[in-house]
Amino acid sequence: MTELTGAMNVSCERKASSFNGFVMLVVLVAVSALAIWTVSQGVPPEGAMKDAKLAFAGLLFGSILALVLVAAGFFMIQPNQAAVITLFGAYRGTERTEGLRWVWPWMMRKKISARAHNVHSDRVKINDLRGNPIEVACNVVWRVADTAQAAFDVDDYKTFVEIQIEAGLRTVGARHPYDDMSDEDETTLRGSADVVNSELCAELNERLQVAGIVVDEAGLTHLAYAPEIAGAMLRRQQADAVIAARKKVVIGAVGMVEDALAKLAEDGIVELDDERKAAMVSNLMVVLCGDREASPIVNAGSLY
Questions:
Q1: Burial class (CB within 10 angstroms; exposed 0-12, middle 13-18, buried 19+) of 203
Q2: Which of 114, 149, 218, 300 would give a disulfide with 201, using CB separation of 3.0 to 4.6 Å?
Q3: In what residue span(s) does the Band domain sit (predicted)?
Q4: How many CB atoms lie under 10 A from the CB of residue 93?
């Protein structure tokens, strides 16, 4: 924030000075009654004194002018809404009090919503940490925290938010790989959603601070390889799945063979020398690890 202050004048929200609208509504009724009473008295006759005519005209003009000025100063503040008050271009504060309010008619009021906004970004094509082209999109929940910054420090704060969301998404997406292709346990876009979403939220809060915007929640809603490499990456993922499945099958088969040999030796069913054990291990591994059914061969003679 210190560096930003040196580059531009940072606005800061402060409370505006306005009046209760219902009190001014009573004043408006009183002024209206005065104008009606003045008209009801009638225009002075032709023979009336000049001073009487001037007094009538002045009273009528003053009543109408007061009626217009009072009526022009009313404005309404809804829940989670604010009005930025300016006087001839100078900031005079922000009114957040709900209900009917009143300010002098020559003071301008610009209403800004302080409610939560939900933005779903377009799909953005970027390169991940390893240079693979990927497509990402995100959903962001944001709101205006400082109305003065949103109104005066950026040209159009809603457009500013949309552009910074795309820029922040590109920055965070390029920090990590799409998937983990090595044995190292690292942060990935696909496998570390909580970490990536936290980084995206922090990145957007830092970028939108200049506009007085706070991001409450941010998260990826779309993540995929770009079409030009999607096929190759799908085959790689399939190969990884096959290797992982084969590895688990082999580990299980080795355990089963070990248990079988130990059970045979423990019960004394058959005495196996090293060569017979090797043949039995080979046969069991083929049966347990093969993709197809094994065709048994009955040996009617001796192994030797």
A1: buried
A2: 218
A3: 72-237
A4: 20
As for how many domains the chain has, the answer is: 3
Q: What's the rounded Cα separation, in Å, for the pair 118 and 217?
A: 9
Residue 285 falls within a domain, yes or no? yes
pLDDT digits 0-9 by tens, 264-285: 777 767 666 667 667 777 766 7
Token digits of residue 129: 């940490």
Q: Which of 117, 127, 123, 116 shows the shortest CA–CA distance to 220?
A: 123
- Residue 194 sits in a domain whose CATH number is 3.30.479.30
The boundaries of the domain holding residue 263 are 230-289
Side chain identity, residue 281:
V
Q: What is the pLDDT of residues 18-37, one digit of tens each?
A: 888 888 888 888 878 877 77
Nearest to 125 by CA among 165, 179, 173: 173
- How many angstroms separate the CA atoms of 52 and 58, rounded? 10
- pTM, 2 dp: 0.68
Angle, nearest 10°, between helix axes 274-289 and 227-267?
140
Residues 256 and 199 in one domain: no
Question: Which residues on adjacent β-strands are paired with residue 111?
Answer: 83
Kindly state the tokens that stand for 51. 């001073």
